[in-house]
Amino acid sequence: MTIDDLLAREAIRDTLAKYNVSGDRLKVDDYAACFTEDGVIQSERAPGDFIFRYEGRETIRAWQNRWLSREPGQDTVHKASFVRHHLGTCKIDLTGPNTAKVRTYWAAWTDIGPDHCGVYIDDFRKVDGEWLIALRRVRKDWVSPQGLFESAISNTDG
């Protein structure tokens, strides 16, 4: 492994952390900046209420803005007072000087404790010196029967 490989892996880990912190804190611009201009985020092997696909940084930004733009009196996006996504095992395979395949386990915690968990399956691409998500497939493997976040995706569908 070279120094460039180590730097690439650390930059990818930084983007992974920025994505989760920005998403949890509803920092929409920072969240969208984690993706390439043509980036895609989509669900994988998902039940009907968790199916989504957003293509392009601006479309992803608009989707995230819907988390913020609730009409007065309209239901909240989810029932949790906080959401914290925690990253676990992360396998980074550099597939070229500007590309990588990444698989990361994640777990989301809310007011009830563990709420839901799964895996991010990512294609990363280096653009202008930054490692960004070109394709993110979000697989949800488990949801607590008391889950507070279950309605979140369907409540932000455009």
Automatic annotation (TrEMBL):
<protein>
    <submittedName>
        <fullName>Nuclear transport factor 2 family protein</fullName>
    </submittedName>
</protein>
<dbReference type="InterPro" id="IPR032710">
    <property type="entry name" value="NTF2-like_dom_sf"/>
</dbReference>
<feature type="domain" description="SnoaL-like">
    <location>
        <begin position="5"/>
        <end position="137"/>
    </location>
</feature>
<dbReference type="Pfam" id="PF13577">
    <property type="entry name" value="SnoaL_4"/>
</dbReference>
<dbReference type="InterPro" id="IPR037401">
    <property type="entry name" value="SnoaL-like"/>
</dbReference>
